[in-house]
Amino acid sequence: MKVGVVVFPGSNCDRDTAWAFSLLEGVEVEYLWHKDGLPGDVDLVVLPGGFSYGDYLRTGAFARFSPIMEDVIDFAGRGGLVLGICNGFQVLLESGLLPGAMLPNRGLRFICDWVHIRVERTDTPFTQNLSVGQVLRIPVAHFEGNYFADRSTLAEIEAKGQVVFRYSDPEGNVSERTNPNGSLNNIAGLVNERGNVLGMMPHPERAAAEILGSADGLKILQSVVDFGAKV
Amino acid sequence: MKFAIDILIERKEGVADPEGNTIKDALRRLGYDSVESVRTSKMFSVVVEVNSPAEAKQIAEEIAQKVLANPVIENFKIFNIEEAG
Fold first, then answer.
1. What pLDDT, on the 0 to 100 scale, is given for residue B85?
2. What is the mean pLDDT of residues B10-39?
3. Closest chain B CA to residue A149
4. Cβ atoms A193, A160 nearer than 8 A
5. Phi/psi of residue B77, each to 5°?
6. What is the pLDDT of residue A230?
7. A156: chain B residues, CB-CB within 8 Å
8. pTM, entire model
9. Closest CA to A125 of A13, A20, A19, A230
């Protein structure tokens, strides 16, 4: 499987993400400069974390207009696999590939911490190796991770089962107490209707080896790589 | 002709404004008990070189819609279209 990691000016998790994917068998990783086109042989596009364009105006607001994004939007429209992590999730929201928007964290603090997320769905390429209700321990690092959508959009997202991960406690209980940033319905990760585009605030690449404190993030990356191997 | 335009971007009603809330709480702590709410917004002052105020307004609307505001959470207002030196 060929994984393309997009590099925007200000991306800073691109190398960690490439490293984490390179731990998996059968994966070839390529960095994709945001001004270039998307190569035809890429199977998975990853929009990494960081501070694209200095987070100016709004997080992800300018990355969305980077030349490569036009190709990424086409690719996603054809069913191509796209994973947006943290700032990458914000770019997916800004570009309209996923519904909603991010607000500053409730409490107005940058949160750099370990969180638990509960898996809500396993019929997506990104979670097919996991089980419903399984709890993963993965870190977050963001200032704007407070997920918002208007009432009707949120109802639609829930009705269509687009929520893939929710902030929970280690036992999988979801409540206000386990909500680090004020996200509506504790949403930590979301797919599009078709299920081929995932945005998530936690950083799976930072939980890719036990020595880092957890290898749970690698399970998500392994899922999508296994999915790609079958296609 | 050059025109200066002010574009105000504000959060839609019902969208949380953690910064505004923090400012409100601080003001009340300072004894301004009459302060009921504070909402933050952003103001952009843009200069364009076009042929008419109508054209300036049209461009302002376009950039507000496309770039400056995120329609999911924000509204925009355009005002003070003035000829600039």
1. 74
2. 94
3. B72
4. yes
5. -135, 140
6. 76
7. none
8. 0.93
9. A230
**A216-230 vs A14-22: helix crossing angle, rounded to 10:** 70
8 Å CB contact between A92 and A98: yes
Tokens of B28: 């009340």
ipTM: 0.81
Q: Which fold has domain A2-230?
A: Rossmann fold (3.40.50)
Cα–Cα distances (Å) from A9 to A6, A62, A88, A90, in that order, read 10, 10, 13, 15
Here the tokens at position A55 are 């987070």
To the nearest whole Å, the CA of B38 is away from the closest chain A CA by 15
Is the CB of residue B16 less than 8 Å away from at least one CB of chain A? yes
**Are the C-beta atoms of residues B68 and B3 closer than 8 Å to each other?**
no
Contacts of B33 (CB under 8 A, 6+ apart): none
Domains of chain B: 2-84 (3.30.1280.10)
Q: Rounded to an integer, what distance in angstroms lies between the CA atom of residue A152 and that of residue B42?
A: 26
CA atoms within 13 A on the CB side of A31: 13
Which of A55, A56, A58 should be substituted to probe chain B, the one whose Cβ sees the most B Cβ atoms within 10 Å?
A: A58
Q: What is the mean pLDDT of each run of 10 residues along chain A (231 residues)?
A: 97 97 97 96 97 93 94 98 98 97 92 98 97 98 96 97 98 97 97 98 97 97 93 68
Q: Hey, is the C-beta of A231 within 8 angstroms of any chain B C-beta?
A: no
Instruction: Say yes or no to pLDDT of B16 above 90.
Output: no
What is the C-alpha separation between B19 and B1, in angstroms, rounded? 38
The catalytic position among A86, A94, A116, A120 is A86
Q: What is the pLDDT of residue A10?
A: 96
Cβ contacts (< 8 Å) between B72 and chain A: which residues?
93, 99-101, 148-150, 153
